[in-house]
Amino acid sequence: MDAFSAVELYALLKLRVDVFVVEQACAYPELDGEDADALHLRLLINAETAAYARILPATHAGPRIGRVLVSPNQRGKRLGEAVMREAIRACEAHFPGQPISLSAQSHLERFYHSLGFAPISAEYVEDGIPHINMRRAAGLSPNTVPDQGALAS
């Protein structure tokens, strides 16, 4: 597995802070101690991170995808979908037969639903932003989407 250079790590952490802390005006501990054990996925364009997701190792509930972002200057190109599809493939390869979880910002619920995730919690506020927990069933076909009735409007 490749390690980040100091320059790559700095650029990645800066992008995460720029999006999650500055852009979303959300003061929270972005450096949460989880990165050392995570699998980091980057979609690079011209050697710069255009989209990113991290996968936390499997627990009793399976792997967890988080910190999904698209660089502000790369939005509108469906890169979020591309990085999420790769994250799903990585979870299935590294943690076969296990469901995949994530904590979605509520306004992105339909996006994650289109990738096969279904809500498993009521909406809650985390760091001042509405979220909902979602899970993708193990063994779900890549093009299968949960029943629309499971999606709260």
Give the overall shape, derived from the CA principal axes.
Answer: globular
* Sheet with the most strands, sense and barrel status: 7 strands, mixed
Over all CA atoms, what is the radius of gyration?
15 Å
Which class best fits the helix and strand makeup?
A: alpha+beta
Q: What's the number of extended β-strand segments? A: 7
Bin the helical content: 25-40%
- Give the CA-CA distance, first to last residue: 41 Å
List the total number of helices: 3
- DSSP strand (E) fraction? 25-35%
Descriptive account of the structure:
- The structure is a single chain.
- By secondary structure, the chain is of the alpha+beta class.
- The protein is built from three helices and seven strands, in the order αβββαβαβββ.
- Strands 1, 2, 3, 4, 5, 6 and 7 form a seven-stranded mixed β-sheet that branches.
- The chain is globular, with a radius of gyration of 15 Å.
- The C terminus is likely disordered.
